[in-house]
């Protein structure tokens, strides 16, 4: 199986009765201080609170699940997605998350009935524990970004968006391990629409890989690290990115928090920092569109911690 528009279309047929077709809305001129209007894909309204439900459902529905069930390592959103899909399909799941994970995300994982194991300082630590558990039990491992089924599942958000907003010139997508960006870029690979990867300076595995010519380890230090904090981008996402990602852009944490704040104040949308990262590139000027360029921004996650949201929205 390959990562392609055709495979994404097949994935969409497979998962569409299990996922939400999330809305796409137009911001209106002047919103966020921009002189132009943009299309916002509200994927933070997806089941489990992020786009990752798409990849989780596609992975589970396209594979045989052993008696030992499902194992997954996650910074939070992937774990919630796998737990959600497992619950919907009547399967048991064990989710490994690092200690930096957002407590709200851990609570959400547990709400779907999954067994949660919290250990390690970073995603890589949780991934190592997950791999060991899989070897010991035979549980199937659902990777959050470096798997073909995951990437094709994530790409279904682009299929929906293309139907809702068919005339976009450019799409801005936040990147953690790269599965979402790879899925979106694969869907648009043979179209005029360009896909741009946005990452925080303190969590930039894709940008580092593109500079190095291969995936490399990066240090993680960003407000968005619990969603976008992959220490190394995936091999599959990297291959897609170097062929189909038009540009890689980095943004400061302050710009992410400003985007999160403006989404609430101007559109009453609450997203987590990772979900605001793509918009941060626009409102900070890190990405400057050409005159008349039609822009789409993907709001990828809404599993925000209430304390952080309250502090951000109040300017603290």
Automatic annotation (TrEMBL):
Lineage, highest ranks first: Bacteria, Pseudomonadati, Pseudomonadota, Alphaproteobacteria, Hyphomicrobiales
Name listed for the protein in its UniProt record: Threonine dehydratase
The entry's keywords: Lyase, Pyridoxal phosphate
Gene3D superfamilies: 3.40.50.1100
Named cofactor requirement(s): pyridoxal 5'-phosphate
Annotated Tryptophan synthase beta chain-like PALP domain residues: 16-301
PROSITE patterns assigned: DEHYDRATASE_SER_THR
InterPro entries: Ser/Thr_Dehydratase, Ser/Thr_deHydtase_PyrdxlP-BS, TrpB-like_PALP, TrpB-like_PALP_sf
UniProt signal peptide: none
């Amino acid at each position: 199986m390959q990562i392609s528009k055709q495979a994404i279309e097949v994935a969409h047929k497979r998962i569409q009765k299990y996922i939400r077709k999330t809305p796409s809305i137009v911001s209106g001129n002047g919103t966020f201080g921009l002189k132009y209007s943009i299309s916002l894909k509200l994927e933070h309204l997806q089941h489990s609170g992020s786009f990752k439900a798409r990849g989780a459902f596609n992975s589970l529905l396209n594979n045989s699940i052993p008696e030992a069930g499902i194992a997954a390592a996650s910074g939070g959103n992937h774990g919630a997605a796998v737990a959600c899909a497992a619950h919907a399909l009547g399967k048991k799941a064990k989710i490994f998350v690092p200690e930096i994970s957002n407590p709200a995300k851990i609570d959400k994982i547990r709400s779907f009935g999954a067994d949660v194991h919290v250990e390690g300082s970073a995603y890589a630590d949780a991934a190592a524990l997950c791999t060991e558990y899989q070897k010991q039990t035979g549980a199937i491992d659902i990777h959050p970004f470096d798997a073909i089924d995951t990437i094709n599942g994530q790409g279904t958000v682009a299929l929906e968006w293309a139907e809702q907003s068919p005339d976009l010139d450019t799409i801005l997508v936040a990147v953690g391990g790269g599965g979402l960006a790879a899925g979106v870029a694969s869907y648009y690979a043979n179209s005029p629409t360009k896909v741009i990867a946005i990452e925080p300076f303190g969590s930039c595995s894709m940008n580092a890989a593109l500079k190095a010519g291969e995936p490399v380890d990066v240090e993680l230090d960003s407000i968005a690290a619990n969603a976008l904090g992959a220490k190394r981008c995936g091999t599959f996402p990297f291959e897609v990115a170097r062929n189909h990602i038009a540009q890689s852009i980095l943004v400061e944490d302050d710009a992410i928090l400003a985007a999160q704040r403006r989404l609430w104040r101007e559109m009453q949308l609450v997203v987590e920092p990772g979900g605001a990262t793509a918009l941060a590139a626009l409102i900070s000027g890190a990405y400057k569109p050409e005159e008349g360029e039609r822009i789409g921004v993907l709001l990828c996650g809404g599993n925000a911690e209430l304390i952080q949201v309250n502090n951000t929205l109040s300017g603290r």
